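Section: Multi-chain targets

For targets with more than one molecule, the full set of components is provided together so that the structure can be written out for the assembly as a whole rather than chain by chain. Components appear in the order listed by the source. The example entry contains two components.
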Amino acid sequence: MGSQKKKNEKKKEFLKPKLKVGKTKPKPTSYTELGFKAKAIGLPEQSITKTHTSRETFDHYVSLARHHSHTTRREALTYLQTHLPEEVDSSLFTSISPLILDPTSTVRAAALSLVHAIPPSSFAPHVHLISLYIHSAMTHLAPDIRADSSKFLLFALKAEDADIPMQVVTRSWEKTLHCFGSLLGWDLATTPGPGESVPAANWNKVGNATSLDRITNASEHLDALSLFLRLGLSENLTPEMQAQRQVPLYHADTSKHLIPRNTTAPYARLNLFADDKGRRWTTVSSTEDIGARYQILKGILPGILAGLDSGRRLGGEIGRKCKHLIDFLDKVKQETEKLQ
Amino acid sequence: MPKRRRAALLPSNIALLQNLIRRDPGSYKEEFLVQYRHYATQKEILATNPSGFHDTEAFLDQIGFIAQVCTCYPSETKEYPEDLADLLKAHHSVLPVELREKIVQSLVLLRNRGIISSERLIQVIFPLLTTTNSKTFRKDIYTTLVRILKNANRNTKAPKLNRTVQTLLFTLLESTDGPAAAPDGLWAAKLARELWRRSIWDDPRTVEIMKQAALHGNTKVAIAGVSFFLGVDREREKAERKKRGLADDDDSSNASSDDENDDKPQIAGIKHRMGINKKTGKRARKLEAAMRSLKKKEKGASLPTQLNFSAIHLLHDPQGFAERLFSQTLSRSSGNKFTLEQRIQILNLVSRLIGVHKLSVLGLYSYLLKYLTPKQRNVTQFMAATAQASHDLVPPDVLSPVIRKIADEFVSDGVAAEVAAAGLNTIREILTRNPLAIEADLLQDLTAYKGSKSKSVMMAARSLIGLYREVAPDMLSRKDRGKIASMEMSAAAAAGEVKKLRFGVENVVEGIPGLELLEKWRKEQGLDKDDEDAVPKDAEDDDDAWDIDVSDSEDSDSGWIDMESDVEYNVSDEEDDADGNTDAGEDLSDDDSDKEQEAEVNQPTKRVKTEDALQTLMATKILTPADFQKLDELRTKAGLDKILHGGKAASATTHEDTVDATSLLGPKSGKADKAERLAAVMEGRQDRQFGPKKGKKDSQPHSTTNKEKARKKNFIMMIHKRDVQGKSKKSLRDKQKVLRAHVERQKKSKKKH
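Its structure, encoded as tokens over all components, is:
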């Protein structure tokens, strides 16, 4: 019977093994045989005293930036920030840019500070990738991710290298504006008919639950929007930008025949290497100059103005910011219409 | 109020948003647009680095969500299906598996919602079938394709869709010839075969596809095509029968088949519950509904099968096909690309084609000559193919060398009996189809084997004699001809019209065979005379005559008994039908003797009479179904008489029949050997279970057994029962007995372990 068998087995466990003189001691039951036979043993690079190069550790931490535990991710980011090399390659960007959409706020904050620490010269080639993720964050379902998206956008727009904000503005003008629409809860897609008024925007939808947060979020978004619009619609460039734009003039039309210097991908609008068929959200629209940008803005201007107007009525900081923006837009409108 | 509150609700996850959108698409349009934009950004991110995309989970949800709700916002999501199609087309090889599946699912969903057409969906996913490396994905696509086509052809055929897919299959088979094209061609053949098996496709175009496959350069594809023609019709019939029966073996739609399988136990369950539970109207109605559905299904099961042509019959240009198949695959110039088994399969198809369509591929017969030796492996298959390939339009001088070769190689005194039997049977099969292919002296040599000691050889020789007694008795030796055949011969000689077989002359049917019998019968019944007179009665009869009355025919069956003239019968007059049946019974004895006399003497007059009958009956009367039934009866009776008197008539074979290779060996003689016996035993055991059923019963769901109940019963309740009390009151002897038995049992169980 099974029970008898078990009893016997149990009994055996507690029997003391007999030790005899001249015989080897019996091995305990838990003994594991560790020896093995082999004709040859290859030890490729095994060394207890191995020193990892800083490069290897860095790569290791880059891979940890995608770790499933959020604390690990955050720690990896802080490590990366403190050990940033002179030249940063693309692997770092491909692994940290998804963190813009990270569900944990601390990780996002760490990512933001890391992005701040990266030298702008190595940042510039990856603006497009980062801006894709920023757009994704602006339309994200989770409100706190949406709220943080403007921080990243503001960083990109305020970057020292003038190339970076211009890339954002020229390559994704229309898309960013629409994303702002969804971020601030404005209805930009439907253009109201003559005489109709755009429904007032729902400021409750902006950002987090608490009202204080909401206000700060909204003001941040408005900051980003106003900076974005100012960059896109005015020629009043920062002195550095103008300095960059200065081209020794041999002829009045020389600049027309030069490759535009303020963009990294000047001919991207030609869409030479993409096989996508000109879809609305997927192509780089041709928004290289202010005129084109204004044409795109004109379609959604009523929506924006209505949203700003409702924000102005709220008063306070938001109201002030909205008013400034409305004034700016009016000015731009007048100027452009004067030109035409 | 509640609506407003819901509008204020901020959806925090995508499932909630989907639910809200379903209820109120208008209010949540903005949220949807945000999500749609988010999807677009995600897609862009994916496009930058498809293999390294790691936010798959969220993207999956996004895709599914948009597919679910895009009927609510048709104008906003116009480009969505094309987006998905592009995504799949461009990145299907690097996308994560689940994402790929989700995209296909979403596309199918969009098709079900009517947003994209079936044609478009098939155009998108069909190319993936052959380009993808993943086995599971390929299988998924394959099942999806079959399901789409099945659903499209459910009620009525969808010719446009079918044509699109068929064209795609054609191009797969046509465009590429070579070793690399094998998977493409195989998938095309597989798909076409599956659709044919399910009777989704049953048109000549499908057959053309398979024809293309059979002529494909790749061996595997060619064999797939060939086996389609050989076996698929049987498969289709089987599937059809299964479908009409209870079990539906529909792999793709498991849900529906499950429902159908559940029906029977459902009824049993409902009945059981009716017996136990309170009887309510609702339960009764449920039972009634279940019974009704069962009845409906049974009715469906007995429905006649729809008319389907076999694939071979639907072939366009069978002559060209057979010639190309023969020259490409079998003739020596093609080299030995195929194994012997494959060559036999192809040969089987070619011979079937030749037999069914009466083609002339004369090279085949000389090709077969090489293989017709007893030592050839699988020679019976070659012999069967030879028999199938012969028909009455093959020139006898082409076929006679084949027969000569078989006779020389197989039918001689030096060979084993079963070899001789196989040879004779093959020759008989060939000659049934083309009786002119043998010379009289060879035939007589072969028929001499009727005296063989081996039963199978003797039977084969006799069947040959039986055959020639019918078709050409003059070729047999005098004593082999038999009574009837010699009488007919002498009668024909007396009339001066000697019937001789001639090549190319088909026996044309000039009228309804056996019509003279009907005429005679009608005369006997006196029906012809009152044809004009008794109009009212006839009209009455006519109405009845259009439907075959089953009871009537049974009556007449009982009325028509074979009666020999030299036996005395007691004809009972107490038949319940007074209208003519008794008369018929009485007439019969005279009638039979009349007939014999006629057979002996009046051959020419009979012929004249036949013509008369044709004249009178066919010209004057419209034959009703009842008449035809009577005609059948009369004919079988006449035929039976002939068999009784004149030996076994050769079974009527047509040129379309297949020849079974095993039947050529003749009846099996002697005891079965061990392997055969074992095979029979195993066949008997197939569906039975052996071994203890104890564990199996426990594993099935069941209610508590009595044993379990007894074991769980409260001890206090048992303490005063005899089972328990008796134990202590037992006599010493009884106690000892019980103890002994227990010890014994213990020992036994220990031994077992």
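The longest helix of chain A spans residues 290-314.
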